[in-house]
Every structure is written in structure tokens, then in C-alpha cells.
Amino acid sequence: MNDKELRIVQGHFRTFYQRQMPSVPALNQRELGFGWLKKIDFRHKAFSSQRDFERFVLQDVPLFMSASTAYYRFPDKQPMPQKEFSGADLVFDLDAPRSKDHSGLSRSDGVSVAHDDFFCEGCLLDVHQQALRIMEFLKDDFGLQGSLVFSGQKGFHVHVRSEAVWDLSKEARRQMAEYVGAEGLDAESFFQKATGYSDSSERNVGVLQGPSEQSGGWAGKIHAVMHAAIEKNDVAALKTFGVSKKHRDDIAARPLELLEQLRLGHWSAFCSKPNVEALMDAVKVVQTDKAVTFDLHRLIRIPGSLHGSTGFEAKVLAKPDIFQLQDVLAFDSNQKMTVIPKDALKFEFLGQSYDLPRARFAEVPLPLGIFLLCQEKAFGP
Ligand SMILES: [Zn+2]
């Protein structure tokens, strides 16, 4: 960003921080990092009070603010061992979706989304779904409560601040990140040829035993996914999971009976050859940056701060299940801003289409104007 655009963006960021300042839990034990040109231009900064932190933010107006997931006795000392590490939050970082096909996704208002290279809400919705899976793993498998935070640009972070995780070793964190991604997991082993059994009509219905209502961990999740597909009679999902036409007809005709078979783990009653990989895909988390989880000295975007590449707020989602772009806009969409696009720009933003010619004054909503300056796609007026 040139000096002029930097000053414009900083002016708006300062106005935002005057109204709403992020607060970092246990601030005096955290190492902080700040960036103007890069995401982190300098680190090893510490503040003994929220007031000092606020004074710094309002005066220097960084475009990027990060804090350590770790707690230190002396957070500003160097080299690292001098800081005296005393524990760390558990954080998962999710970035960049698996595919540009967003056909199964829609916004909270029900409108479907198509991929757009310039700015893609669909990609955000895709990653949000993955982040929700992490939240479920934490709750169901580890008994932990995470908070879900929009990263401010392309992804999401899940933070666990419970004391229960502070002492987790690097290796334990790595294993957790691998577990949610089903790495090294032999899911085929959840399915076994068992001795025959009979259904209510005393027919011998087969010998494939799989995850049941009693199963925990990954097997329990596979049970849940199949349960949901049968319960909703979700034909597309059943097909993907390897349920034959004949069995799908059975499910449509007598769902309760087959749900009961599933509860007992009698898979051959409704599926003779499950597509285990597809079942796993419906549960696993594929795009975590594992290094963020196991690196105990990582700095991560401060929740409630602004992201200098977008001007969006790295916001804690009060209702994790719902992500709406308008909720993370830091500036009023009713206000206008004039920008001069560096090139012709054609894109969609907040449901509105834009076709802006190169090097002409364009009046756009303030959040979009700041986004274009942050993305270095436009000059300021
Ligand atoms: Zn996309």
C-alpha cells in the first residue's frame, strides 16, 4: 500500500478502534506482533496493561495485530527461552477451501453462491463448515469448548482457552490435529464380517458389522453420518456412501426398522459395501494448518482486531453456526467512499454486482472501498 492509501485506511481503522478496542485475555502474559507492510513487521512486544495497549493501537494504528497463543512470564524477552513459557491455548487454523465448487452451500438468506476469484463468499462458507466440524470434535471427542473466530480474510480460527489445554505438549497437539483429519486412521477396521443374525422377519440379513450407537470416536461419527442419511432419506448421500438402489428402496419403505439395524451396528441390513472413504469425507477436517496447532510459539490474529488485507473484523462468532459476511464488516455499508480502481474490476460484493472501469472515480460503500484499498486494487481519492 502506498503512503496515501495507508493513511486513509489507518484513519478508518483508528475510528473503528476508538469505538471498539479488542481485548486480549491475559494480555500481560502474551507476546504481541504488529504489521503495517507485512502481517508481522515486529514481534516480542508486550504490554503490562490494556491501557498501554490501547494507547499504542490508537497512536500507531497497525494494520495487523497478533498475539501469542502461549503464556509467558516475560513475554518481551529474547531469545524465546528467556520468555519462560508457562502454557498455551489450543488453536486450530483453517484456511483455503478444498474446492471451488460451492454447489452444496448457501448463504444464511438461502441464496446459493458461485466461486469468484476476486472475492468469494462461497469459499468462506466452505471453510466455515469445516471449522464447525472442529468445534464438534472438540466437544464430542475431547470435552472442550472452543470459540470460533473469523480470521479476517480467508479462514477461521478455533480457540480453546481452557486451563485443561495449557500444558498439552507439542506432540499431543499434533496428534489432535491429525485426529480431526483422520490421518493414519484405518476406518476399514470399523467394519467386520460377523456371524449371521436375523431381522424381525427372521431372515438372515447378512454378516457385515459396523459402527453402532455404542461406538465412540471416529466410529461413532460414521454411525451418526449414516444415521442422518437414513433418517432424512438423503438419496444423494446414501448413494455416495455405497448404499445400493435395492437398499435405498428398502430404506424408503421401512426407515425405522433399518435405523434400528444401524443402531445395533448391523450394516448389511442396508448396505453391503459401504464407501468408507466417502463416510470419512463427510466428517473429517481437511484444511487445518497443523503447524499452527502444534507450534507453541505461534502468533495469531487478535480476535476483535481488523485485518489489513480486507478491513474486515477478525470477529468472534457469537453464534458459531452462522457466518454472514455483513456481520464481520467493520464499517457502515450506508456510508460511501470514493476510490480509483487500478484496473477494470468486475465482481460481486454483498450480493451486489460491480463493474468498475479502470482509473475512473467510483463511489462505493465504505467497507468495499476500504477492502479495495487494502487489496491494493484501487487508489484513494
Ligand atoms: Zn469460492
Q: Give the CATH class of the largest domain.
A: Alpha Beta
Distance between the termini: 14 Å
> What do we call the CATH topology of the largest domain?
DNA primase, PRIM domain
Order of helices and strands: HEEHEEEEHEEHHEEHHHHHHEEEEEHE
How many domains would you count in the coordinates?
Answer: 2
Query: Structural class of the secondary elements?
Result: alpha+beta
Computed CA radius of gyration, to the nearest angstrom: 25 Å
Strand order of the largest sheet: 2-1-3-11
- How many runs of DSSP E, i.e. beta strands? 16
Report the CATH superfamily of the largest domain. DNA primase, PRIM domain
Structure ligands: zinc ion
Number of DSSP helices? 12
Roughly what is the average pLDDT, rounded to an integer? 93
Q: Describe it for me?
A:
This protein has 381 residues and is an alpha+beta fold. 33% of the residues lie in helices and 19% in strands. The protein has 2 domains: 3-181 and 287-330, DNA primase, PRIM domain (Alpha-Beta Complex), CATH 3.90.920.10; 187-281, no CATH class. The chain has 12 helices and 16 strands. The chain has a 4-stranded antiparallel β-sheet, with no helix packed on it. α6 runs antiparallel to α9 (255-263). The chain is flat. The two termini are 14 Å apart. The site of zinc ion has 6 residues, from α3.
Briefly characterize the structure:
With 381 residues, this protein is an alpha+beta fold. The chain has two domains: 3-181 and 287-330, DNA primase, PRIM domain, CATH 3.90.920; 187-281, no CATH class.
